[in-house]
Amino acid sequence: MPEPFSPAQLLYIGMEVAIAVTSVVGNVMVVWAVKINRSLRDTTFCFIVSLALADIAVGALVIPLAITISIGLQTHFYSCLLVACTVLVLTQSSILALLAIAVDRYLRVKIPTSYRRVVTPRRAGLAVVLCWTVAFIVGLTPMLGWNNLSGLRENGSISPDLVITCQFENVISMDYMVYFNFFGWVLPPLLLMLVIYAEIFYMIHKHLNKKKGAGGHSDPHKYYDKELNLAKSLALVLFLFAVSWLPLHILNCITLFCPHCQTPMFLLYIAILLTHGNSAVNPIVYAFRIKKFRTAFQKIWEQYLCCKDVSALEMQASERKEMPEPDPRQAAAPPPPPLLLKDMPNNGPPKPQSPTSGHPLELGPKQALSILEQNSV
To answer: Which one of 280, 302, 319, 355 has the fewest CB atoms closer than 10 angstroms to its CB?
Structure first.
């Protein structure tokens, strides 16, 4: 019979299950909100969806495998290695998605007038594909040979049929984790994102101070004010990611550079729980910090989970500007002034008024734009 779980193991497993459920439900709602809400369908939220998909995989795949590993399961070396590499792939995809989000927000603030011409949906999709491709290359590198198999064979700690106790540190080389993964693909992107967000906040505050000094509240002021709020929310996501993952990487550095130092198991479990918990906190940040997500989550909860009859998300106020403009022919308009005899053309009597008289398309560009702006919601 298998040995009963200790209280510490039961607590760890219970917390992992809670994190997994929260991560899957929260990030599914993120993807759902972007799918049904038109105002969330831009390039930044495309990268947020990529981040949410990685977090869904953590809750649905990585955490169950982590629980299995914590039991001390005996598996084939390469089966355990594949489980560990899956964690690395998803971690790297999250880092690259955060980097893509930072670059996207930087371009939105740096070149606001030509942003939509430079950052097209096609290029954003290619960026997402590139992020996942690099994540697979970095995360699956141990499968190509940079692992602990040769060391285990030299120490005689592995059977001839390559069956071992499946634990992360048994199959993944600390040289790979510290020199290649942490120093190469985790720390540099985090530092680069720190510089990018610092530059974003600097540019936004410079524009806002310029507008305040001019004493105006024009559309650019509103634009940069909105960008500032969203940048703060996304910077918080980055901060939480760093806080969640740096402790585990620091423990890996201690293991490599101080082999005789003993790391308490409870610290290792806390570091692992922090890394998994990061997948569950992002939807909470979106809900509390980004109004569009908060409204979308509320609508999903009321309409699909509580079965309340609420209006569709596409009809909410934040999206009315995307609706077709009302036909000016249907709006009550004063009749045109009578045509005086002196204003009649020389080549004949005046033509009868068309039913579309006064339509913006029949006016000059400035008059048409004025009418459309008055009719917009």
So the answer is: 355
